[in-house]
Amino acid sequence: MTWKQIAFVCVNALIISVEDELIRSGGQKEVVMDADPEAFNFNKVADAEIVGLVDDACDLAVTVLACGSPLAIGHMLLVPRRDVITPQVLSTELLRCGLQMVAKSLRRDFRLLFNSLLGFASVNHFHYHGLYLEYCGFTHRQFPVERVERSTVGGSRTEGKLCAELLAESQWYCRGLVLSAGSQVGVTGEPPPADIEALATFAGNVIGLLQSRNIPHNVMIAPYQGERKPRQFEDLFAEVNATPLAASPEVYIFPRQSEDKYRADGGFNAAICEISGLITSHDEERFQQFDEDKVSSIFKEDVSLAGDDFDDLICK
């Protein structure tokens, strides 16, 4: 089955619920743990939940499953090398696979999402969530976090370089960084394509640091959306802006507190969708009680990594 066919099937298929084996950590203390083949894994799902196998989206064969707890039409799970039962640990190889899937999708509203263990991952068997934002109610077909202002920590999207940016803390309720890449040296285009291998390695190194420190994390991969801001007239002649900027996908990384720190009566999960701006209330009563200040305080107190800890990561 091709990637184009998968997009059609997932949007139009009946989403079939699976049993409630998708649970919180239950006392788990490590971000990186071996997968237990005896526990629930995606090799145990019913055949009716398997949408298909995609072998043209990335270097790995990817099984597409209907999500048992869908947040929107077309919400899917993508499981590379399903039969291997790889643990829910992001590696450079799996990041490369994710970046390739996003790049090959024909839809600019497609997003790949990842929750680590202790970061609201439901199963210790590697999987991405896939969403089409057209069906999530967003006017711009972007997560709200994608429209937040940023400050550059270092680098750029010019030839042979990598870029790291921080989300403006005054505009968002969870600290995070955004990684992108320039083109390979000598590659041309209008704009030139980004160096996906370099970006996967860059993001893999950052996430590897989080794993080594047992810091839970949530990740979102977004396709290139064009330039965020038009160039100022006076900048058109500046050398740095005269150098072509690559059409790079973006990797959003949110280091966070453990889900065990999250209050029991929060009223919503605090996984990657919620961190990115798609919040689904557990019930109507709590939905009616929400306001922006309350939601913001929950994320800042229970989810976002403390400022000193976040700064220590950035300084590395």
From TrEMBL:
<dbReference type="InterPro" id="IPR026506">
    <property type="entry name" value="GDPGP"/>
</dbReference>
<feature type="domain" description="GDPGP1-like C-terminal">
    <location>
        <begin position="194"/>
        <end position="313"/>
    </location>
</feature>
<feature type="domain" description="GDPGP1-like N-terminal">
    <location>
        <begin position="29"/>
        <end position="130"/>
    </location>
</feature>
<keyword id="KW-0548">Nucleotidyltransferase</keyword>
<dbReference type="GO" id="GO:0005085">
    <property type="term" value="F:guanyl-nucleotide exchange factor activity"/>
</dbReference>
<keyword id="KW-0808">Transferase</keyword>
<dbReference type="InterPro" id="IPR058865">
    <property type="entry name" value="GDPGP1_C"/>
</dbReference>
<dbReference type="Pfam" id="PF26216">
    <property type="entry name" value="GDPGP1_C"/>
</dbReference>
<dbReference type="GO" id="GO:0080048">
    <property type="term" value="F:GDP-D-glucose phosphorylase activity"/>
</dbReference>
<dbReference type="GO" id="GO:0000166">
    <property type="term" value="F:nucleotide binding"/>
</dbReference>
<dbReference type="Pfam" id="PF26217">
    <property type="entry name" value="GDPGP1_N"/>
</dbReference>
<keyword id="KW-0547">Nucleotide-binding</keyword>
<keyword id="KW-0344">Guanine-nucleotide releasing factor</keyword>
<keyword id="KW-0378">Hydrolase</keyword>
<comment type="similarity">
    <text>Belongs to the GDPGP1 family.</text>
</comment>
<dbReference type="GO" id="GO:0016787">
    <property type="term" value="F:hydrolase activity"/>
</dbReference>
<keyword id="KW-0963">Cytoplasm</keyword>
<dbReference type="InterPro" id="IPR058866">
    <property type="entry name" value="GDPGP1_N"/>
</dbReference>
<comment type="function">
    <text>Specific and highly efficient GDP-D-glucose phosphorylase regulating the levels of GDP-D-glucose in cells.</text>
</comment>
<dbReference type="GO" id="GO:0006006">
    <property type="term" value="P:glucose metabolic process"/>
</dbReference>
<dbReference type="GO" id="GO:0005737">
    <property type="term" value="C:cytoplasm"/>
</dbReference>
<protein>
    <recommendedName>
        <fullName>GDP-D-glucose phosphorylase 1</fullName>
        <ecNumber>2.7.7.78</ecNumber>
    </recommendedName>
</protein>
